Amino acid sequence: AMKINQDTVLRGAKVTLVPYTAAHVPRYHEWMQSEELQRLTASEPLSLEQEYGMQRSWREDADKCTFIVLDSGRWPGQVEENSMVGDVNLFLTNAEDPTLAEIEIMIAEPSCRGRGFGKEATLLMMAYGVRKLGITKFEAKIGQENEASICMFKKLHFKEVAVNSIFQEVTLRLDVSDQERQWLLEQTNHSEERSYAELKQPAGVLDT
């Protein structure tokens, strides 16, 4: 099961990626009530109970790897729930080809958009996928009207390979050649991998 990242923290300059735990669910659930986010992520609103169920399956499913995106300026220090800005996921959807992953990024906090958070979170996740999961090909499926996201992936060397007019979705792809791998590791060489258990504040010292 995809528990490989359950104690992994990827700390970058702007964002820090942490495993998705039950503590993140209420805030995540709150975000997903937004019609705009439902549209951008092509998802249905779930009840809080269903969202907890989803979080458990995310942790246990072998074909998904997910991190919650925190604002590095706030965490560690502030309560995680108050530092959350979005999430980033890898889906290993092709049983025939375990080196292909679909990547998905959501910066849910409006105040954090357009500040490079999504870009850094995506780079950290891609470098993690390449290093730890043996991924050599990435795909991103994005709604046609989500120009900011399409533009960001193109800056990360993704090329548009398909347009689905029924789902109004664009598919972008990146094959990780040696050169791309080198570039990816350079882009993320400022980041560090830490233990989640060590960085989390012990219960009882959380600022109430």
From TrEMBL:
GO molecular function: tubulin N-terminal-methionine acetyltransferase activity
Keywords: Acyltransferase, Transferase
Signal peptide per UniProt: none
Name of the protein in its database record: Alpha/beta-tubulin-N-acetyltransferase 9
General function of this protein: N-acetyltransferase that mediates the acetylation of the N-terminal residues of alpha- and beta-tubulin.
EC number, UniProt record: 2.3.1.308
Transferase is among the record's keywords: yes
Catalytic reaction equation(s): N-terminal L-methionyl-[tubulin] + acetyl-CoA = N-terminal N(alpha)-acetyl-L-methionyl-[tubulin] + CoA + H(+)
InterPro entries documented for this protein: Acyl_CoA_acyltransferase (IPR016181), GNAT_dom (IPR000182), NAT9-like (IPR039135)
The species this protein was found in: Polioptila caerulea
Protein family membership: Belongs to the acetyltransferase family. GNAT subfamily.
Domain N-acetyltransferase: 15-159
